[in-house]
Design brief:
The chain has 678 residues and is α/β, with parallel strands linked by helices. Among the domains are: 94 residues, OB fold (Dihydrolipoamide Acetyltransferase, E2P) (Beta Barrel), CATH 2.40.50; 188 residues, Rossmann fold; 158 residues, Rossmann fold (3-Layer(aba) Sandwich). It is 40% helix and 18% strand. The protein is built from 26 helices and 21 strands. The protein is globular and about 90 Å long. 40% of the residues are buried. The structure holds adenosine-5'-diphosphate and magnesium ion. Magnesium ion binds next to helix 11.
């Protein structure tokens, strides 16, 4: 049986499969498959006028073609026109290439001109058989994003077919006039086939009004889709958990401090969410050390005082365990029954924990994602708290959703999300922000020190520890190999033990058994260890206020978010805190830029914004993007104003123009929409 082509014109199954790889499964997708760049093939340059570094097209005849073997196997072709001679070089070629370049045959070649050993040449030019009478295109030639085995010529033809039909606008003309945006049809046609007088630089920088229109539509589609899934959530029902002020009040009363106004505000938002009959999906963001844990504990207590169970999930065992050790005693004092589930727990302990949880004898379960990946189940799960949510993959969070009936969810993140990102990718969540640190913190001083001055740094560590302080020594991140990373940590530990014999030194890394890790962390917490050598496992959440000095080795290898997180482990008490970033020269340009940012800035939001500038949004939001419509045309830094208008317009469309909403989402997301809504 032959599958029907998803396109309105014939496309071979092999080609259709390649198009599908690019996400192109219907005519409308091809229409929106816009060029990456354009090439000017509208005129021919005589060989004599070619300049190195320039991209040009020549019309020439083959004089000679041969396979050379030195310095490596390659096809070299000598071309000539009336004005001069040009070499072509192909490092990858098929025997058919050699046959094609018969002496006397006439070709058009397009590529970058380089000054070669024997005169000017082009390496891997694009070429086509053509003579003087072959007409030149009247327009710039689009170059499309493509995939292996799908040539530009084929793609161009298919896109051209898709453009034969008229393109209807999804937005009314008077809206566009207000937004000062051009109509869709002319924008799309212009980008596929820019007229010759169109400034290429403006097109390429994507500031051209046609690009702005596309970026706007894309952002609008994203806003509509996220806002829709948010509205769908509003239609889901769950058990409301009103504030009874029993456990929560008792808890705040026993805290040694008052909540900051920022914490109080966030807590009020959460507390009133819980009282609604719809599942909460709230992101609590706040810089490292801003005090999110207390707010999370209050959230759990409100669920528990309503007779529900709560789960408190952290991305690493160290962190999950720390939460458990720190909160369980405080909460048990209030009569809350706590348990702990971890992947590395003894089987018998874990089984016992699960038994108690599913029998409803536990009110609050702490753990890693093991909480949701194992067969165990809750009796009446009403709330899930996910700490450091950006560290979890989408799959893990989905698994969580399928346990129990739509519990409320509080996600926490110390990787502050710049406003534009929050507005776009997180538009389906409610966001609370703790935007100030608790009082009494002394700012952290950051120092950049070359690794050549390691001895001075050792001296400083010795002094700080002998004066009663504690220190973290963070070992370098070795991305290529976990084994090597472990080795490095052990070597660093051995070296420091030898160099600083008067200090009590501990080592913690990801490969330790849970109990061992816990023992080391507890000893550090109790100040039985002065210097803690650690891998980046301590990056998230670890809280030892007496530790005021941190040394980070090979800081140039680490990302901004990671450096900021690590640095946030100090500066938690009233001691003057210092973070020393040791770097090894030479430092790449990107690493230099990162070190400059972390040296100059302490505000996590500002650092995240710089990170976004340096890396783009893809990496910053991590796994979050899978399943969500990614932005192809819009740029969150450049197009903030567009994003804001798109957000406003999305609300208006959803409330008053379901027809426009449906058409717009269908055009942009089509089949991908199902994913976005989940
Ligand atoms: P994070 O937001 O990074 O998770 P934590 O919740 O670990 O921060 O809090 C950091 C430290 O600040 C903890 O030692 C906590 O006890 C303390 N803390 C939290 N809230 C306050 C407050 N309102 N006043 C003083 N200290 C606070
Ligand atoms: Mg935390």
């Amino acid at each position: 049986m032959k599958a029907a082509s998803p396109f309105s014109f014939p496309v071979s199954p092999a080609t259709a499969a390649k198009l599908a790889k690019l996400g192109l499964t219907r005519d409308a997708d091809l229409v929106l498959h816009l060029p990456l760049r354009w090439e000017d093939e509208t005129h021919i340059t005589p060989i004599r006028d070619l300049l190195p570094g320039q991209s040009a097209q020549v019309q020439a005849v083959v004089r000679d073609a041969k396979v050379a073997y030195r310095p490596r196997r390659m096809l070299t072709v000598t071309m000539e026109d009336a004005s001069g001679v040009l070499g072509l070089r192909f490092l990858n070629f098929y025997p058919s290439h050699l046959k094609l370049f018969q002496p006397g045959e006439s070709f058009r070649c397009m590529g970058e001109v380089r000054g070669g050993f024997l005169g000017l040449e082009m390496v891997h030019p694009r070429f086509a058989k053509a003579d003087e009478s072959t007409p030149l295109p009247a327009q710039l030639t689009p170059v499309y994003p493509t995939t292996a085995g799908l040539g530009q010529a084929t793609l161009r033809k298919l896109v051209a077919r898709s453009l034969e039909a008229p393109i209807s606008d999804t937005l009314p003309a008077d809206w566009l006039a207000k937004l000062k945006l051009p109509d869709l049809e002319s924008s799309i046609r212009l980008l596929h086939q820019p007229p010759l007088d169109c400034a290429l630089s403006e097109l390429e920088s994507r500031r051209h009004p046609a690009w702005q229109r596309l970026a706007f539509d894309e952002l609008l589609a994203q806003q509509l889709s996220l806002a829709t899934s948010r509205r769908q959530r509003q239609s889901l029902r769950t058990t409301p958990l009103p504030a009874k002020q029993q456990l929560t009040t008792a808890f705040t009363r026993q805290l040694p401090f008052d909540l900051t106004p920022a914490q109080t505000h966030a807590w009020q938002e959460i507390s009133s969410d819980l009282n609604r009959p719809h599942p909460m999906r709230r992101l609590l963001q706040g810089d490292v050390g801003s005090g999110k844990t207390v707010v999370a504990a209050l959230t759990c207590l409100q669920a528990i005082e309503n007779g529900q169970q709560a789960a408190f999930m952290a991305p690493t065992e160290i962190l999950a365990e720390q939460h458990f050790r720190k909160l369980a005693p405080q909460l048990s004092a209030l009569g809350v029954r706590c348990a702990w589930v971890s992947g590395s727990q003894k089987k018998s302990e874990r089984t016992a924990a699960w038994q108690a949880i599913s029998a409803g004898e536990i009110d609050l379960a702490f753990g890693t994602h093991a909480l949701f990946q194992e067969a165990g189940s809750f009796d009446r799960l009403g709330l899930v708290v996910v700490d450091e949510q950006h560290r979890f993959g989408v799959g893990q969070r989905l698994a969580l959703m399928h346990k129990g009936t739509e519990p409320h969810q509080l996600m926490m993140s110390a990787t502050p999300i710049p406003r534009t990102l929050a507005m776009s990718f997180f538009a389906d969540l409610d966001v609370s922000t703790i935007d100030s640190l608790p009082p009494g913190r002394t700012p952290i001083m950051t120092k950049l020190v070359s690794a050549a001055r390691r001895d001075d740094v050792l001296e400083r560590v010795r002094e700080a520890c002998l004066a009663g302080g504690q220190t973290y020594w963070v070992c370098p991140l070795i991305e290529e190999s976990e084994k090597l990373q472990l080795q490095t940590a052990q070597d660093t530990y051995a070296a420091l033990v030898a160099q600083l014999p008067e200090l009590r030194i501990g080592l913690v890394h990801g490969r330790l058994k849970s109990a061992e890790k816990q023992a080391v962390m507890a000893a550090f917490q109790a100040h039985q260890i002065d210097l803690l050598v650690a891998t980046t496992v301590i990056e998230v959440g670890v809280d030892v206020p007496n530790a005021a000095l941190m040394i980070i080795e090979h800081a140039e290898r680490m990302g901004l978010a990671q450096l900021h997180q690590l640095r946030g482990r100090v500066g938690r008490g009233s001691r003057e805190s210092v973070c020393v970033l040791l770097y090894q020269t030479p430092v790449s340009e990107l690493a230099r830029a990162r070190l400059k940012v972390i040296f100059e800035l302490t505000d996590g939001f500002e650092i995240a914004r710089q990170d976004l500038l340096l890396r783009g949004p893809g990496e910053l939001i991590g796994h979050r993007q899978s399943g969500l419509p990614m932005l192809r045309f819009a740029d969150l830094e450049r197009d903030v104003a567009l994003l804001e208008s798109a957000r406003d317009l999305a609300q208006r469309c959803l409330s008053h123009h379901p027809d426009i909403t449906a058409r717009h989402v269908e055009r942009w997301l089509g089949s991908r929409q199902a994913l976005a809504g989940s």
